[in-house]
Design a protein that fits this description.
2 domains, single chain, mainly alpha, 14 helices
């Protein structure tokens, strides 16, 4: 065989083997193998996990949309409360990933198991207020958000199921964070694929009453979600006790440890703050756009979906930085931790440059997929084009934030978010849009300048290196 052909065959075989290992999971020590290999093994399943999550969200709302605007409103109004739940679940997950990664990097897997148990107990406790509110006060909660008569008489059952059964949502977030922190990203991916796969299958069956299944309408969507996530949680717990590649729980670890739980909670407060600040800042921006006109709101809603869809792979890649930083700091190798962040940041910005080019060239075409309204298309195309100028900086910011989080420094990103999103982005967008009368363009440019500044400032703080000295 020609040597060049043979080398190509060996290269293809090597890439295929790496892909198989990334999807299956390996016992590789992420503090010792080559950084490129470690990033690949962690990032592939994390990216696929988030892609599946975004696919489920689209499919779910597609089937609910067939029931009419009131059914969609029931989902939308319930999600305003679920956003608070997601903030808590994601904030707790940030802390869990960081602490588990640190313990695994220190080769203290028994302590990692103890952290996992206390994290699960915290998730149980955190879900209780939402469950009580959802089961007993769903109509009152929806009324508070201005729900119509149909939602209050029929759609409230969706809220009851989603908030009442929120434990499965909380647990699937937190336990997958345990797996990711330990380096078992492939397990987290498979569980979410199974969970969301069941949900996607059950959605049309329970919503529309296909075959032997009852026609439950919007309530069926909530039941499908609870069943899918519930199955995922059962698999998670089974896998934790059976033992993943890097972490295993033991029955003698099943006890309440208030000191350890408070330590986890303290670390998680910054993560929860980050999520709440980000979500509320978008609410304020949408409120400004609402004063400008419904077309601006509609266009922005579409753009945000495009934004989230294209950023899912970038977030998956960024999540790999949190695991590598935590484990390498635990292994007392801060230089390798820093190198991993620069390398992942380079990859992330490369991907988002490609997206930026597509956004710049095809901004109108992308909007026309979702809307036929000329004004909505024009407004949305303008924001997509402005986003294309900013995406490369956003790519770095995502990775740097996850690096801080992976080190256990959740306070720094929280303070950054307060300053740049609440104190700069919202007032600047308001001033440009309403005071200078730039209308929707003012909001878009306000977002551009705040995100450009936050990216540069985060780079400055990262280079200072104080995150390497975090003790958790």
């Amino acid at each position: 065989m020609n040597p060049s052909v043979q080398n190509q065959v060996q290269t293809n075989s090597s890439i295929w083997n790496k892909l198989v290992n990334a999807l299956k999971g390996t016992e590789a020590d992420y503090t010792k193998i080559s950084l490129k290999h470690a990033i690949f093994l962690l990032a592939v399943p994390m990216i696929l996990e988030l892609v599946m999550e975004s696919t489920f969200a689209v499919v779910d709302i597609y089937f609910v949309g067939k029931l009419g605007p009131s059914a969609v409103a029931a989902v939308g109004l319930t999600e305003t409360y679920l956003f608070l739940l997601y903030s808590i679940a994601m904030g707790l997950s940030v802390a869990v990933t960081a602490i588990i990664a640190r313990r695994v990097g220190e080769k203290k897997k028994n302590k990692a198991g103890k952290v996992a148990v206390q994290s699960i107990i915290l998730a149980l406790l955190g879900s209780l207020p939402f469950a009580i509110a959802g089961i007993f006060y769903s109509k009152e909660l929806l009324s508070l958000m201005g729900a119509d008569e149909w939602v209050l008489e029929t759609g409230y059952r969706y809220t009851q199921w989603m908030l009442g059964g929120n434990l499965v949502i909380m647990l699937i977030f937190v336990i997958n964070a345990i797996f990711r922190g330990a380096g078992d990203a492939a397990i987290a991916m498979r569980i979410l694929w199974i969970s969301n796969g069941i949900n996607i299958i059950l959605d049309p069956l329970l919503i529309m009453g296909i075959g032997p299944f009852p026609e439950l309408g919007v309530e069926g969507a909530a039941i499908a979600t609870n069943i899918g996530r519930g199955v995922g949680v059962l698999i998670q717990i089974y896998t934790l006790f059976k033992g993943g590649k890097h972490i295993q729980l033991k029955f003698d670890q099943l006890y309440f440890d208030a000191k350890l739980m408070l330590s986890i909670l303290k670390t998680s407060l910054g993560g929860i703050g980050q999520m709440l600040i980000s979500m509320t800042s978008w609410i304020f921006l949408m409120r400004i756009l609402a004063d400008i006109g419904s077309e601006a709101v509609a266009a922005s809603t579409i753009v945000i979906r495009l934004l989230m869809f294209t950023l899912m792979p970038a977030w998956g890649l960024s999540n790999a930085a949190a695991t590598l930083v935590g484990q390498n700091l635990g292994a007392d190798n801060p230089k390798r931790a820093e190198k991993s962040v620069w390398l992942i940041g380079f990859y992330n910005m490369g991907y988002l440059i490609i997206v930026s080019i597509l956004f710049f060239i095809f901004n109108k075409d992308l909007m026309m997929i979702f809307s036929q309204d000329k004004q909505v298309i024009e407004i949305g195309a303008e924001w997509v084009r402005i986003l294309s100028y900013d995406y490369i900086v956003y790519g770095w910011w995502m990775v740097a934030v996850q690096a801080f989080n992976g080190a256990g420094d959740t306070k720094t990103p929280t303070l950054i978010n307060i300053v740049f999103f609440w104190l700069i982005q919202i007032p600047l967008s308001y001033y440009l849009a309403l005071e200078l009368d730039w209308q929707h363009s003012g909001v878009f440019w306000g977002v551009f300048w705040s995100e450009l500044l936050v990216g540069l400032f985060t780079l400055y703080l990262f280079k200072r290196g104080s995150w390497k000295k975090m003790v958790i």
